[in-house]
Write a structure and sequence with these properties.
- By secondary structure, the chain is an alpha/beta fold.
- The chain has a domain at about 5-65 and about 105-145 and about 235-290: FAD/NAD(P)-binding domain (3-Layer(bba) Sandwich).
- The chain is about 35% helix and about 20% strand.
- The strands form four sheets. It has a seven-stranded mixed β-sheet, with helices on one face. Strands 8-2-1-9-17-16 form a six-stranded mixed β-sheet, with helices on one face. The chain has a three-stranded antiparallel β-sheet with strand order 3-7-4, with no helix packed on it.
- It is globular.
- The mean pLDDT is about 95.
- Bound molecules: flavin-adenine dinucleotide.
- Flavin-adenine dinucleotide (FAD) binds next to helix 1, strand 2, strand 3, strand 14 and helix 5.
């Protein structure tokens, strides 16, 4: 048995690192505070994007020795893009624009797939385990603070598999909402990039919107959610500990697509321990430029409301018409020209706040923005009905796995 490596957190980044290291003969111990991998998410659908690189992410995973067939995924080449004025258009591509996976503790979930890969490789995972981070080599403990949150409802539905993405500043302040249906189970989620009291009312209103525009025959099961921590540390290795995934601030400021960064950074951390690369250098070369541009895009998005969202949606469709591929726009979003790049110093000063974390790391983080006057509106009757329906389901045992008390700014 080789040198012992301890990893804090058995999520995607920690398990990706554990798998590569155990395969290379290291004695790997992963310490997870929860009872199982994926317990943070409870059946949430999430999308793994294919636009921040020209390589299909699943091919990249295979090159690293990670097997994407270990978990269920559904590839999509088309979505409904819902404009703020309710017009629906269809960005499409040839191949997989993104894949939907399930987060949670069921066997087919991505978290469980990664757990199986790590165990098969020979890693030891200790669940329900609380250890001192200073005793670990890799910190993979996910987000700490909240820069934004997402709230969703999971339900049974008769609707065929489908993904809809909605830019609407009223239903999802500063962000977007989405509908995902996979094999008879649906998720409607709204993301709040501005902090609100009673966030549940945004979800009720969003669900009411989808109920009106899609034939869902929605039977609620549970409500889920979580927070995203958007911060750029000055260093990714601190006091000999390697920070990966969201614990290292590796998260997409624009849409919150953090899974690809989490897995990639876990792999890079392992390769660095195996002396195949220098983690600090690789992360700054491969991931930080993407995160910086996502922060610039976020800065610009924070300045617009529905009128700006409409311009974006229209531009996207015009771009698709010109280039014959809807994914090209998403790739362009992450490949900035000189003008967007030059905004970085303004973004750093204007949107990010310097913070010294408890472990001594210095980060520039995006605080949870305050609500705006326009975020206060009267709920519609349909949204009130959605809320009442959820209260009944909840009284009957429907689980709520995320509340406002989980939000820490
Ligand atoms: C509602 C929601 C929707 C999202 N949708 C998408 C999406 O569509 N696409 C996408 O790419 N990303 C999405 N994300 C982001 C994505 O989930 C994260 O970026 C990704 O999971 C980060 O991986 P990670 O390994 O850093 O953390 P996680 O996968 O969260 O793993 C961290 C692990 O560390 C454990 N842990 C925490 N503290 C400790 C401790 N002290 N000791 C031991 N263990 C600890 C946690 O229990 C957890 O198991 C979403 C996030 C949320 C909240």
């Amino acid at each position: 048995m080789g040198e012992r490596i301890d990893i804090l957190g058995a999520g995607l980044s920690g398990l990706a690192a554990a798998t590569i290291l155990a395969k290379s003969g290291k004695e790997v111990h992963v310490h997870e505070i929860r009872k199982d991998s994926g317990a943070r998410f409870d059946g949430d659908f999430q999308g793994i994007e294919n636009w921040t690189s020209d390589i299909d992410f699943f091919d990249e995973m295979r090159e690293w020795g990670l097997d994407p067939d270990e978990f269920k995924s559904n590839a999509f080449d088309v979505i409904d893009l819902i404009h703020p004025d309710d017009v629906i258009t269809n960005p499409k591509t040839k191949g997989a624009a993104f894949r939907v996976v399930e987060r949670g503790t069921d066997e087919h979930c991505i978290d469980q797939g990664f757990k199986r890969m790590a165990i098969t490789a020979g890693a030891n995972i200790h669940y329900g385990s609380k250890v001192n981070p200073n005793d670990c080599d890799i910190i993979a403990a996910g987000p700490k603070d909240s820069s934004a949150i997402a709230f969703g409802e999971i339900f049974h539905t008769d609707h065929p598999n489908h993904v809809a993405f909605q830019l609407n500043d009223k239903l999802a302040p500063g962000a977007y909402s989405y509908l995902i249906v996979i094999d008879g189970v649906g998720l409607i989620c709204t993301c709040l990039w501005r902090q609100q009291k009673k966030s549940g009312r945004y979800l009720n209103e969003t669900i009411a919107w989808y109920d009106e525009h899609y034939v869902l025959n929605r039977r609620p099961i549970k409500r889920v959610g979580g927070k995203g921590d958007f911060s750029l540390p000055t260093k990714y290795i601190h006091e000999e500990k390697i920070y990966v995934g969201e614990a290292g601030g590796l998260q997409d400021f624009m849409w919150g697509f953090g899974m690809r960064y989490a897995i990639t950074s876990g792999v890079l951390a392992a390769q660095s321990i195996l002396q195949q690369c220098d983690y600090e250098v690789e992360v700054k070369k491969r991931l930080v430029p993407l995160i910086k541009i996502s922060a610039i895009n976020r800065f610009l998005m924070n300045r617009v409301g529905d009128r700006g969202f409409k311009i974006v949606a229209r531009y996207w469709m015009r771009d698709q018409k010109r280039k014959g591929d809807g994914l090209r726009f998403m790739k362009w979003v992450y490949q900035p020209g000189i003008i967007r790049k030059s905004l970085w110093p303004i973004v750093k000063i204007g949107m990010l706040r310097k913070k010294i974390l408890a472990d001594g790391r210095i980060v520039h983080r995006m605080p949870f923005r305050k609500s705006l006057k326009r975020d206060l509106w009267e709920p519609t009757d349909k949204a009130l009905e959605v809320g009442a329906q959820w209260n009944l389901v909840r009284k009957g045992g429907g689980k709520l796995s995320f509340t406002e008390s989980d939000v820490k700014n």
